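Researcher: Can you fold this with tryptophanyl-5'AMP in place?
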Amino acid sequence: MKTIVSGIQPSGTLHLGNYLGFLRQAVELQDNSGCKRFYFIVDFHSLTGRYNPKEKAKEIYELAVDLLAGGIDPKKSTLFIQSHIEEHANLAWIFNTITSMGQLERMVEYKEKVAQGITPNAGLFDYPVLMAADILLYKGELVPVGEDQLQHIELARDTARAFNRRFGKTFPEPKAILTKAPRVMSLNNARQKMSKSLPQGCLFLTDSPKVMREKIMRAETDSHAEIGCDPKRRAAISNLVMIYAELSGMTTSEVVKMFKGVGYAEFKKELAELVIKTFKPFQERRAKVFKNKAQVMKVLEEGARNARPIARATMEEVRKKVGLI
Ligand code: TYM
């Protein structure tokens, strides 16, 4: 039985990139009864960026609501909060001792944040090691993520290999699984990935229809007269075509064909309506789940109760192998 593991940071509501790169796939993977699934809210990771402590609890709760409303089913997946299982941090410490500074210095996401002018804390630098612990604590083999996480998964593989070499076979080497939309770009800057840190180009699943329409109508295109899909040369319009394709179940060439001879404004209008229609049921479910705090908290507690014995067993095995008493 394969083990699927993935995490997501609580730092604002879900956006279209999270949905197409991660959540939709995490939900679809629930149909495979031959797999075990662990999905968690990585609250510890989210403390490495700037945040308001007064908002954090709300962000964690809202993300749990989003995941449940988005289709994570607690009967099929173990859903919990990372910091509720203390072994995540404990295993990360052991992994710190077999990870070189050089490996972490090569991490592109870290370098990008530093380039943006963020003064990095040690946690931000060490972020991928905690992520390796998240995955390997459950002996995860498959990790549904967006493309931006590939280098981190590679580090988790290196960590598993290094640990196994030094202390004996303990961990599998996890593999990332990507969707057909592994990198959704910002709507107003197609050279950057869609992210909460660029809110104008970011389509939040909770945006009102009015805001969704505005963001899409303002989205960057190009000076060609025709819809097309050529991500290298026409990144902005290709991103919109890819979003339309993913949400309609069509291929990008089918979308290009369907909108042949149609202007950008008309295409954007159609895209906006498709996005609004796609996320209406999500928004309705979300409003219902949000009100039921007792139930949401119960799901998270049960998830932690199910994950804990597995995490403890791995940590016990690790403690013995590295020589702790
Ligand atoms: P996070 O919280 O930034 O994003 C959650 C998931 O959404 C994907 N994603 C995207 N996919 C496509 N296009 C985009 N524009 C886009 N933006 C985000 C991310 O790739 C991710 O899959 N480090 C992770 C969280 C993490 C984790 C883990 C993941 C911590 N421990 C263990 C897997 C396994 C992160 O910050 O994701």
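Model: Folded with tryptophanyl-5'AMP in place. The mean pLDDT is 97.
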